[in-house]
Design brief:
Chain B: Its main location: membrane. The complex is a heterodimer of chains A (319) and B (208). Chain A has 319 residues and is an alpha/beta fold. Chain A is 35% helix and 13% strand. The longest helix of chain A is centred in the middle third of the chain and has 16 residues. The C terminus of chain A is likely disordered. Chain B is of the alpha/beta class and 208 residues long. Chain B has a six-stranded mixed β-sheet with strand order 2-3-1-4-5-6, with helices on both faces. Classes of the chains: A alpha/beta (319), B alpha/beta (208).
């Protein structure tokens, strides 16, 4: 593997790759299909956060979440599916992966296609719930937004060069700051590493006619994370998502481009921590540490005056 | 600048613990007040859409724990802040005295482009209580000495001035955001091809 971009050469990335192994897990009868995952552990946490990448992403696009949240005790699993050509295959495969990893419930952070699949998975497993909560990043509820519904049936026979060009069209590179530019470079490298069947299958899932029924998820804790600069999704698509989940917490980012988990990882991690904090101390906790340190006694009484200069536990530190 | 573009304003509320930061935010966003005091743990935020001068803007209001140390919040927390709201309790003079350090600390951590003109809004909360410890005059004097910061006397409990204060916060934040955008605007791209063309044309001229 020869990744040359700045992010791939960064100390964070190198340290990530040298400390967490890439595991390949076969859960289908077809032995050539393997999920690729990075699992930050520890195994004692049975409700981890699973990160699902967009069409052009591999599991390692979430390395900054894995590294950043692991330091808070959160078990993060970045997972990348093998080529699945339809919804049912994907859902069944993901279910088997969760069983294989012996997880009770999962929190999902899904980006773009990953967010769509996360919603679909939560919807289809609602009678026997596997999903504890969702964080949806730059995602959608209906594949018709991509206007490829008719041609998606033919993606399987297009050469990978054509498929890559379809995706690259969305990677705007003009007028972006350094961190966004780095995130794009990183994603382009990952896109280049995908083969034809991986790309074609993901694009087929992304564009085949399908939609979410959000009312079936109205009891699910959801955070919607989106970026307000000129990203690939229009503001209409973002508004649709807000309307679909009126109960959701809205974590808007001012800027960050299409890949905020790379370009704005500190803000993304802060929002992920705030989202996961609500499960602290329950069986759905994603961390073996408390994400909410207990305030020291004395702060609870109404009369207490506390100097703000005193040394306190660090509540929202992102390293 | 396209006026159609949706605007996100990031507002940060700071002040000593127990002055009513969370209550003010809840009163403004949810129109609710509870007498029960519950210390805020960690940082959290609420979003609300408001209309400022015929523009729809979304306010992302960050509430903090009064006893929080700044360093623990991290850069992500302060990045892109458009307005900082400093709150004190009009019945507790020491919370008023702290304003200065909150302001200084914010400027250090957020390091805005133009610290002298960064929009702060000062709120003296709990005016519904009898036992005042900080007079309106004293508070106003301090605000004037700090480059004429807007000052409001509020009551989160009785919803006094809360709406008005947040309108001002939104308006000042919007002005700040618009200015920040101006600075962020990248210079026009330098077209290398265009230069090449020019040179070729020169070349053509010479050949004549």
């Amino acid at each position: 593997m020869s990744y040359m971009s700045d992010l791939s050469q960064s100390n964070e990335y190198l340290s990530f790759r040298s400390s967490i192994p890439l595991r390949k897990i076969v859960v289908d009868s077809d032995g050539s299909k393997a999920w690729r995952i990075f699992d930050s552990g520890p195994k004692s946490v049975r409700c981890p956060l699973i990160c699902l990448p967009p069409v052009s992403g591999t599991a390692d696009v979430f390395f900054l979440q894995v590294m950043g949240l692991a330091s808070r005790g959160v078990r993060v699993i970045a997972a990348e599916p093998p080529p699945y050509w339809n919804m049912k295959e994907w859902i069944d495969g993901f279910k088997r992966l969760i069983d294989y990893l012996e997880l009770d419930r999962i929190h999902i952070y899904g980006a773009s296609l990953g967010g769509f699949m996360a919603q679909k998975f939560a919807e289809l497993t609602r009678n026997c719930p596997r999903v504890a909560s969702l964080v949806l990043c730059n995602t959608f509820t209906d594949t018709s937004v991509f206007e490829y519904n008719d041609s998606s049936a033919l993606f399987w026979l297009l050469p990978s060069l054509v498929l890559k060009r379809m995706l690259m069209g969305n990677f705007t590179t003009d007028k972006v700051d350094k961190r966004i530019a780095e995130s794009i470079d990183f994603m382009v490298e990952r896109l280049e590493s995908l083969n034809q069947s991986e790309l074609a299958s993901r694009l087929t899932l992304n564009c085949s006619p399908c939609y979410i029924q959000p009312h079936l998820l109205n009891n699910m804790p959801i955070t919607i994370m989106d970026v307000w600069d000129e990203s690939a999704l229009s503001s209409r698509v973002r508004e649709d998502l807000y309307k679909s989940y009126p109960q959701a917490k809205l974590a808007h980012l001012k800027s960050g481009g299409n890949f905020p988990y790379l370009s704005r990882s500190d803000e993304v991690n802060l929002h992920l921590l705030i989202h996961l904090r609500q499960f602290d101390g329950t069986e759905l906790s994603s961390s073996y540490l408390s994400l909410v340190p207990q305030p020291k006694s004395g702060n609870n009484s109404e009369q207490a005056t506390v100097s703000y200069f005193n040394q306190r536990d660090k509540f929202v530190k992102i390293s | 600048m396209a006026s159609r573009k949706k605007v996100l304003l990031k507002v940060i509320i700071l002040g000593d613990s127990g002055v009513g930061k969370t209550s003010l935010m809840n009163q403004f966003v949810n129109k609710k007040f509870s007498n029960q005091y519950k210390a805020t743990i960690g940082a959290d935020f609420l979003t609300k859409e408001v209309i400022v001068d015929d523009r729809i803007v979304t306010m992302q209001i960050w509430d903090t724990a009064g006893q929080e140390r700044f360093q623990s919040l991290g850069m992500a927390f302060f990045r892109g802040a458009d307005c900082c709201v400093l709150v004190f309790d009009v019945t507790a003079p020491n919370t008023f005295k702290s304003l200065e350090s909150w302001r200084d600390e914010f400027l250090i951590q957020a390091s805005p482009r133009d610290p002298d003109n960064f929009p702060f809004v000062i709120l003296g909360n709990k005016v519904d209580l009898e036992n005042r410890g900080v007079s309106a005059k004293r508070a106003q004097q301090w605000c004037q000495s700090k480059n004429d910061l807007p000052y409001f006397e509020t009551s989160a409990k009785e919803a006094v001035n809360v709406e008005l204060a947040f309108q001002t916060i939104a308006r000042n934040a919007l002005a700040q955001e618009t200015e920040a955008e101006l600075y962020n605007e990248f210079p026009d791209q330098i077209k290398l091809n265009a230069n090449d063309n020019a040179r070729n044309r020169d070349g053509d001229n010479c050949a004549c």
